[in-house]
Amino acid sequence: MGKPRILSGVQPTGNLHLGNYLGAILNWVEGQSQYDNFFCVVDLHAITVPHNPATLAPDTYTIAALYLACGIDLNDSTIFIQSHISAHSELTWLLNCITPINWLQDMIQFKEKAIKQGENVSAGLLDYPVLMAADILLYDADKVPVGEDQKQHIELTRDIAVRFNHLFGRDEPILKLPEPLIRQEGARVMSLADGTRKMSKSDPSDLSRINLLDTPEEITRKIKRCKTDSIRGLELDNLERPECRNLLTLYGILANKPKQTVIAECQDMGWGQFKPLFTETVIEALRPIQERYQVIIEDRASLESVLRQGRERAEAVAVATLDRVKQALGYSRPL
Ligand code: AMP
Ligand code: TRP
What we know:
binds tryptophan, binds adenosine monophosphate, 3-stranded parallel β-sheet, 12 helices, 5 strands
């Protein structure tokens, strides 16, 4: 038996922020030696909402470079671009035909995004979770490390796999059921502008998030202006102080300090004392990532070579699963 398989991905829409880093990528990095990992940049998902063709490819490369800069190790992991492997689109079509529409209409993220978009919601936005299911099922993934907001999509992936196996897996299951892998802390990083909303790429205000590639000046400005409260002393566990809870949690993770240490250190502080400390911690935590990123993004040939090898390894696995699925569905072999 080899190591259990991991698959995960991030969309190339805008920059990665602290939520993506702590909710997803740090999780990938920390566990990677225990698993056989596949990490993709999910650029097919990026066009489910209106997108800019001029930035799609550069943004895709930026995300791949950030995976490496954050510490993804090619000895344990394969990095690739989703649209480079057509099996993702093809399996999506096959799974579409066994997925009830009402399962998709019930997805929280679809409802939220559809409301935000108003008119012209595409069929692709509704179908987004089936494409995600195809991403996961193609690799027979055992675990899918994501932030809390993606849990429902992984449950749907399991439902689709169960249904497929029930309908077409006559003697043995065709598709493997994946489990979500969600960390305890950092699974839901909140907006700097409102501690009750999650930090998000789609928030119109850039002040609401800290991006991994923000300069020290930008980070300082954002933290200076972030929302706080007027209660004396700082607390980590008070649900009625969402901003305080969020900022102290982020501080603890980025400074690598356990909860009790953060509580003891900050309980008598005011915001005027905490904010400079937090600012320094964020800047120092991101500095090595940003330095590695610059080196990687400037060496385009090496990055392309990583992605080419990634595609080859990933495609071999994906094509084998797709064949299995097509055979179960009764297709004739291509001549
Ligand atoms: P996305 O930005 O939607 O492509 O998300 C990529 C990954 O980051 C997914 O695993 C999400 O669950 C995770 N993620 C996005 N926003 C947050 C957040 N505010 N807190 C924690 N994880 C997040
Ligand atoms: N839907 C995920 C998100 O927005 C991105 C994603 C696409 C993904 N395919 C995936 C995550 C497969 C994990 C596994 O965050």
